Amino acid sequence: xxxxxxxxxxxxxxxxxxxxxxxxxxxxxxxxxxxxxxxxxxxxxxxxxxxxxxxxxxxxxxxxxxxxxxxxxxxxxxxxxxxxxxxxxxxxxxxxxxxxxxxxxxxxxxxxxxxxxxxxxxxxxxxxxxxxxxxxxxxxxxxxxxxxxxxxxxxxxxxxxxxxxxxxxxxxxxxxxxxxxxxxxxxxxxxxxxxxxxxxxxxxxxxxxxxxxxxxxxxxxxxxxxxxxxxxxxxxxxxxxxxxxxxxxxxxxxxxxxxxxxxxxxxxxxxxxxxxxxxxxxxxxxxxxxxxxxxxxxxxxxxxxxxxxxxxxxxxxxxxxx
Length: 322
What we know:
Helices cover about 30% and strands about 25% of the residues. It contains eleven helices and 14 strands.
C-alpha cells in the first residue's frame, strides 16, 4: 500500500511540473499583440504610434493577426529620413496606413511564411478596394519588400506568440511601396529593373515611383520573359536592344492614370498604353494579352497593389508596332 501511495505521489509531482513548464512556455499567449508590445521597452515608439493612430483596440481583440513590429531604432531612422521630429509630427492618416502596412490577416509563423506576395491591411490612394501587397522573400531569413534599402525590413526576432496572433520584430519601418519598390523587391524582375534604369532611357524609375500621371497599371515581364525576348530578337543581351525600341517597348507595358484590377478586365478589351499603341485582353482559358505583333502573353499573377498603382505579372515581353 505504501508503494502505491509513493507511486501516485511521484506521478502527481510529474504532472504538476509538466503543467507548470507548459504554462511558462505559453505565458506570452495570455497577452495580446498590443500588450506584448507595451511590455517591450524596445517597441515603445511603436506603442506610441499605435495609440496615436487609434489601433491599440484592433490589436487587443480576438481577431488573429501577424504583425511585423519595428524597433525604436527602426522608427528613429524612419522619422529622420522623412523629416519628422517625433512620432507626434507624423500626420495621423499617414501614420495609420504605415502601421497597417505592417499587419497581415491571420497568424503566420516564420516557418509558415513563404516567398511571394501577401496582402497587408493598408490602403494606398491608388485603389479604393485593393489593399497594399507585401513581397516576402524567405530565401535567407525573412526579408520584406527588399529590405531596408528598398523601404522594407528584415525579421530580426521571429515568432513572439500572442493570444491573438504572432509578432515578428523587424529592423525597419515598412513604407508604403511604390511600383518601383515592388519591382526591386522581387528578384524575378531584376532584368525589368535593369531595363527601366538603363542610362539611355527616360527616368522610368522616377516616374513609376511618383504620383504625376498615377495611378499606373504595369504589366511586368519576368526575367524568363526577357530571356525569351533576347532569343526571339537574336540579340546577345539587354544592352544590344536599340534605345528607341527599348523605350517604346517599356512604355507599352504601362497604362497611365488608371489602377486596372484583374476583375475589371473583359474579354476583347482594348487597352491603351503609355506608348500610344494598344493591346487586346483575351480571357478564354485564362487571362492573356495579344500584342501589336499578334504574340500572346499569359498573365500569371494579378493585383500586386502599390501605393501609386498596380502590377500584373506576365510571361512574355509585349511588343508594340516598331
